[in-house]
Amino acid sequence: MVTTPVLLLLLFDLLLFLAAAFYFDRSEQKWENLLLSALFLCSGMPALIYQIVWQRALFAIYGVNAESVAVVVSAFMLGLGLGSLAGGWLSARFPRHGILIFGLAELGIAAFGLASLRIFSWAAAYTAGGNLLSVIVFSFALLMIPTILMGATLPILVEHLVRRSGRVGASVSRLYFVNTLGSALACYLCAMYLLRLWGQSGSVSVAACLNTVVGGTAYLYGRRPASSSAAAPEPETASRTDSPIKLPTAMLLAGLSGFIALGFEIAWFRVFAMSSADRAPAFALLLSTFLAGVAAGSFVSEKLTQKAAPQTVVLVIGVLLLVSGGVSAYLPGLVATARVQGWSFLSPAPVFFLTAAMLGSVLPLLCQLSVSADEKAGSGVSLIYVSNIVGSVLGSLGIGFVLMQRFGLRQISLQLGFLAVLTGGMVLFLARKESRLPPAWALLLLIAALVAVPMASSTFDSLYEKLTFGNRDEARTAFAHTVENRNGVISVTKDDAVFGGGVYDGFFRIDPSHDVNLILRALFLSAVHPAPKRILMIGLASGSWGQVFANHPQVEALDVVEINPGYLQLIPQYPVVRSFLQNPKVHVYVDDGRRWLVAHPEARYDAIICNSTYFWRDHSTGLLSVEFFKMARDHLNAGGIYYFNTTESAEAIATALHVFPYGLRVVNFMLVSDSPVEISTSRWIDTLRQYKIDGRYLFDPADPLAQHTLAQYEQFANTINLRPVQFGLQSFDSLRKNYGRERIITDNNMGREWELDVPIPWH
């Protein structure tokens, strides 16, 4: 089973949970601690379900371009940060009502969760397609209430446990551990079951039910009469005045660790996405592994250091950062090696788990060192927690949005590795006592880490070739061109094949007589439309199809929407499409295709072409759902045609037939319309004879091979309903008969995006 490594790591964390409840906890409040731990574990599960579903719902409104993704993710985390501050204030203001407030917060989250998708749908009617500023404002406004409630729960419960136990480190460690473990479990469940079986609305309902159970239980427990027999706990003996790390320093280090952790997560996700052919469950499974590691690290590190002197704890923090920085630089190369060996893309998960555990240990240890076990413990923890969140937001924006646009994965991984090592080195110097230097072994470890990071550079050689082709021969040949930016990675082989994010995306070819790009499908437009004057093309890729449509004899304007501007850098380097960007008919917009349609409700076209990617890729159903087909339909002129790549998806064909009353299958493309679709072979051949690109006939009258190809095209027009239909034409009635009972793709069910067993052609 592909996901076995992740499942085993989660089981390990669950064993730690049982150990925490029945072995390590010998206090009089053992059963209350178990109850609160179980409640907070269950509280972490809906939080991650909401995050995954709400982000997808907002991406459908505001687009999956890099800007929108960065804003939505940052808005979610900033809401958690504000909630942490609010929780710190509430814990100080109402110290004896923490469980009650926690229960009310969970019930509030449940109420919002049940209505959330309806709220987002209502907001879409007024805000979809807006500019970047409106995306920022409305994303934050929509997510503010639930994320503030989520973020407030940790400091509130920390204050309660500290009052009962007198130990800050143990309280933060336990709560951080169980809540993060709950989130890790939720990620796994989302990847394997929830989203695939129940879609977005069903998953949100499950999350709201969990919130309700947690909130109701906590509320009832919080209203019980307070016990008067419990003795006041002995506070931690180590005074915070003896700690080398004070609260401001702890906040700085928490911010740096958050920045580093999110930066590594972004880099790792790019590698995992390419290794898994950009399937939706890959991110959820990576996040599950990452969170499981953070959870385990936060628990184990506190248990190992609970009786240690403050200087020793500081040394541990420094060593963890040093080692994580040195190891992390090698992880992308490890994933590529696994790919070459033919192993599962999740086989390196244990190493990611251990690295995340080292990074996850930092936050609770900082709380242990810098927060006193008094009535302000919750407030102190909230300041460190919000600093960590702010660092994470800066990591998301700084790495994912800014640095990814300027540097490649090799440079960013090495830079993050150096930052982690240098931060660890700074912490080591904070741990020194009377001497001016840290212990000799720590200095040697620092030097070793500083040497190890640049040595990792060689592991990035041929990284993208290995991730794309694995153990195939093509992995041994370097790509001719590679473009890396915040939108992804585009690579071109020496024989002009294009791969976007490690997934095949066509060729730089337009020769009908050597048709590896199946240009026949693009040229077929004239067979069914007499005069396509205005065309919209969603997705540019190599520009080969764009070149064909831009030079159509009847076309007057071609609008192109492409989400990744990296293709615009490649097109001028290939003579066959070089003139495309200079064609006065062509207007290229860098944007999400769906978002662009919403932002331009007045635009109408004779044909909309969508050479969409494979139906199993992450976010692919945004261009294959009922909602999108209806949106495209609204942008067609009378008699207009929507023409898209089904990538052999039976559900995509059925969905198009559900929206449009007429259709025709052209090889693996689907042509649908509100008007009857009629093939005019004579018009098609006449148009093809007129076709010129860069001043040369596409079907040269003097070239026997070109004329033979034209004759084959004429025969192709008569292949309707002949077997096999995958290589010819299929009529609407035949399509209805074959695909009428297939499931309809919606934004809610997301088609087959969340299935891991879909076969991938080149993997």
General description of the model:
- The protein has 763 residues and is of the alpha/beta class.
- Helix content is 60%, strand content 9%.
- The strands form 3 sheets. An 8-stranded mixed sheet has the order 7-6-5-8-9-11-10-14, with helices on both faces.
- The chain is elongated and about 90 Å long.
Question: Key features?
Answer:
single chain; 763 residues; alpha/beta; 26 helices; 9% strand
Short description:
By secondary structure, the chain is α/β, with parallel strands linked by helices. It has helices spanning 4-24, 30-62, 66-93, 98-127, 132-165, 168-222, 247-275, 280-305, 310-328, 331-340, 349-360, 362-370, 377-406, 409-430, 440-455, 463-469, 520-523, 525-528, 544-550, 566-570, 593-599, 626-633, 650-659, 681-690, 704-716, 732-739; strands at 481-485, 488-492, 497-500, 503-507, 534-538, 557-562, 586-590, 605-610, 636-645, 662-666, 669-673, 692-693, 696-697, 729-731.
